[in-house]
């Protein structure tokens, strides 16, 4: 019954912005850290960033610092990924994910995430 559903992906030009949403169901969002991951064609999946239950952000990759921001609205069962100054190398299928047990830190989500959304496509191109 646990589900995570991403939305908001689109085709944008370099320098553009997007806001992705991850709507969760089947669990109480406030008890879980949520991470964003991405995978581009021909590349391995990589962690992007994560927000824990104390609303602390962990950046999994330095390449998105000062451009990507994560937030959560527990009452709305939604985690957001706000992306600014998008670059072609940001093109990927973006996933949100969490670890099965509550209160797991973001490092645990990175290493052991076991609940995933279906992904939403972000394409950055001129």
Structure description:
The chain is mainly β. 6% of the residues lie in helices and 44% in strands. It contains 1 helix and 11 strands, in the order βββββββββαββ. It has one helix spanning 106-112, and strands spanning 3-7, 11-12, 18-25, 34-39, 46-51, 57-59, 68-73, 78-83, 92-98, 115-116, 120-124. Strands 2, 4, 5, 6, 9, 10 and 11 form a 7-stranded mixed β-sheet that branches. A 4-stranded antiparallel β-sheet has the order 1-3-8-7, with no helix packed on it. A hairpin with a 6-residue loop joins β4 (34-39) and β5 (46-51). The longest helix is centred in the C-terminal third of the chain and has 7 residues, at 106-112. The chain is globular and about 40 Å long.
Outline:
The protein has 1 helix and 11 strands. With 126 residues, the protein is mostly beta strands.
Low-confidence stretches: none
What percent strand?
35-45%
Main beta sheet:
7 strands, mixed
Whole-Å distance between the termini? 40 Å
The coarse silhouette is globular
User: Which class best fits the helix and strand makeup?
Assistant: mainly beta
Average pLDDT confidence is 97
Report the helical percentage: under 10%
Q: Determine Rg (CA atoms, Å).
A: 13 Å
How many helices? 1
H/E series, N to C?
EEEEEEEEEHEE
Classify the oligomer: single chain
Number of E strands:
11
Which structural traits does this protein have?
126 residues, mainly beta, seven-stranded mixed beta sheet, four-stranded antiparallel beta sheet, 1 helix, 44% strand, globular
Please specify the SSE layout and strand pairing.
Elements: E1 3-7, E2 11-12, E3 18-25, E4 34-39, E5 46-51, E6 57-59, E7 68-73, E8 78-83, E9 92-98, H1 106-112, E10 115-116, E11 120-124
């Amino acid at each position: 019954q646990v589900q995570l559903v991403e939305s908001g992906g689109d085709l944008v030009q370099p320098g553009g912005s997007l806001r992705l949403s991850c709507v969760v169901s089947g669990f109480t969002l406030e008890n879980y850290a949520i991470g964003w991951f991405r995978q581009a064609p021909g590349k391995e999946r990589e962690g992007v960033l994560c927000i824990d239950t104390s609303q602390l952000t962990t950046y999994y990759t330095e390449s998105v610092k000062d451009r990507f921001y994560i937030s959560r609205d527990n009452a709305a069962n939604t985690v957001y990924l706000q992306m600014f100054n998008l670059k072609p190398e940001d093109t990927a299928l973006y996933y949100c994910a969490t670890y099965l047990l509550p209160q797991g830190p973001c490092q645990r989500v990175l290493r052991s995430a076991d609940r995933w959304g279906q992904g939403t496509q972000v394409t950055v191109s001129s």
